[in-house]
Specification:
This protein is an all-alpha fold. Helices cover about 95% and strands about 0% of the residues. The longest helix has about 45 residues. It is rod-shaped.
Length: about 90
């Protein structure tokens, strides 16, 4: 009786282990095929990437404006210095 119980538990455990490994493999394959994200997550990631790009472009434009203003201020300073020196 105890031997039959041990064999039944062993077979049941083996089936559960095989089932778990099979489900893991299926999950990994499914994740690899779909890219790992749902459509909702992909859309959210795309929107986030677009916002980051917009911010980057805005900061680049701002950097150009600051450089232009610095040039204008330096030119004025040189002009004022030259006028005072005369």
């Amino acid at each position: 009786m105890t031997i039959a119980l041990i064999i039944a538990i062993s077979i049941g455990g083996a089936i559960l282990i095989l089932l778990t490994i099979g489900l893991l493999i299926i999950g990994i394959i499914k994740t690899a095929k779909t890219g790992g994200f749902s459509k909702k997550e992909k859309t959210a990631n795309a929107e986030e990437a677009k916002m980051i790009q917009d911010i980057y472009h805005g900061l680049s434009k701002m950097e150009e404006r600051v450089e232009t203003l610095e040039t204008i201020l330096l030119d004025r300073r040189k002009k004022d210095f030259n006028n005072e020196g005369l």
